[in-house]
Amino acid sequence: MLADLLSSPAEGRVLQQENMRTYKSNDEFFQALEKLVQEIDDSGQYEAANRLREGFSCLNGLTDGWALLMESIETTVSQDQEKLKCENMAELKEMLKIVRKAVYRR
């Protein structure tokens, strides 16, 4: 069963929703995102990896930081759809769902 991390940046809560992957904490999510970005970098997609790193570096515990991360993921998904490995794109899209939930609290 897939579920998702939804954490309130301010409160550190973890919520779950069906059909999304589950992360036990923000740290677990961040580690998975860092690993994915490194895989993208290792595959030679340096521009995409750098864009994601830039978005990741904007996390500041506030919703605006999550929104900047969301924008970097959305841009990568739209611009690099054909360039990234299928499994990396699928994981990135799952992470985008999680980040959207953190931004919009829905």
Keywords:
2 strands; 4% strand; two-stranded antiparallel sheet; globular; 61% helix; 106 residues
> What is the straight-line distance between the termini?
20 Å
Major beta sheet, specifics? 2 strands, antiparallel
Low-confidence stretches: 1-16
Order of helices and strands: EEHHHH
Rg calc: 13 Å
Give the oligomer, counting copies of the same chain as homo and different chains as hetero: single chain
Total number of strands: 2
Structural class: mainly alpha
Main sheet strand line-up: 1-2
Strand content: under 5%
Helix residue percentage:
55-70%
Number of helices, counting only DSSP H or I runs of 4 residues or more: 4
Give the overall silhouette.
Answer: globular
Q: Kindly report the average pLDDT value.
A: 85
Summarize the structure.
The chain is mainly alpha-helical and 106 residues long. It has helices spanning 26-42, 46-57, 63-79, 86-104; strands spanning 6-7, 14-15.
Describe what you observe in this structure.
With 106 residues, the protein is mostly helical. The chain has a domain of 74 residues. The protein is 61% helix and 4% strand. The protein has 4 helices and 2 strands, in the order ββαααα. Strands 1-2 form a two-stranded antiparallel ribbon. A hairpin with a 6-residue loop joins strand 1 and strand 2. The longest helix is centred in the C-terminal third of the chain and has 19 residues. The chain is globular, with a radius of gyration of 13 Å. The protein starts with 5 loop residues before the first strand and ends with a helix. The N terminus is likely disordered.
